[in-house]
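Data availability (excerpt). The following record was deposited with the supplementary files.
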Amino acid sequence: MPTFDPTQFINTNPTEYSEEVYEPQHRFKDFNLDQRMLRTLAAMGISTPSPIQDQVIEHILDGKDVVGLAETGTGKTAAFLIPLIELKKQNIKSPTLILTPTRELALQVDSELKKLAKSFRFYSTVCVGGTNIGPQIRQLSRPNQFIIGTPGRIKDLIDRGKIPTEKITSVVLDEADRMLDMGFIHDMKQILGELPEQRHTLFFSATMDDKTKELVNDFMKHPVMVSVKKKDVTDSIMQDVVRFNPDKKFETLVDLLAGEEYQRIIIFTEMKHLANRLGNDLNRAGIKAESIHGNKNHNQRQRSLNAFKSGNARVLVATDVAARGIHVDNVSHVINYDLPHTFEDYVHRIGRTGRGSERGQALTFVPERADRRG
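Predicted structure:
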């Protein structure tokens, strides 16, 4: 059962949020980057470093271990890729390993790598579960400068002897807190334990709890700590509860979605089969919906996500685990159709709306009986 009461977080008058203007201490050319990289950044319209880029690029170029506390949307992927591409020129025979919590995030990192490294002859392979391992093994047989993947599949490939762990001198743990949340702690420890002791370790996380600190202490050497935390998400998002009669829960949702302000909505359910059923029920009610959960294979998840991103579906029904690492702009509402279990889950969910300077709304379904306590 949930361990918190969502009615405590009703916030119908969220704080006006204005991004503080950050004055970077560097320009990209100050880092002595390859001219090809500078031209690529200019062509991508990236003129000045974001705060996390400004503060970590120099340390990574110096070969220091780095712990970066930063959420998605802060430019952290480029913050580690830009210096790693620069360092890779001097050491193209040693692949860099990048671990991510989800397939979707692994693909996003690879996509960004391809854009940033397009002027360099670098190869990368994405190694994720839920897809055929054969093509990944074939791609790993060629020299790769970057190997990007989820811990389960990477561990499997290491166990099969397909990843040359002895050659890996740089490793990135991206969204480490989410990997820990998803139960990858033993895989992560085994992978890190297989790598050379003399290596470059970069660690990015939105939060730093005891499990995260343990990993940092066990596997990093005198890391530089950089924290670039954005706004407190719970202050800047309008939050309210929707009271419903348990016999009329679905009807209450359909009535709610009739409002024209409900443009692009993520709805969270507790379990995989509930996500599937709710998506089907919404479609039957004339509300175009897709669902994303652990029982769908990689291609099915991508199709659902693309339909939602492109506007072909107005609603995405998701479970907590399936939604991690998925970032879609302009989500007008997050609806907790089933209660999240913890406050951390609640924050993860409602953070899907109100990204950047956008205003968002989060609604949590609370049964009438439960709301009449006391």
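Summary of structural features: Residues 6-14+232-372 form a domain with the Rossmann fold fold (CATH 3.40.50.300).
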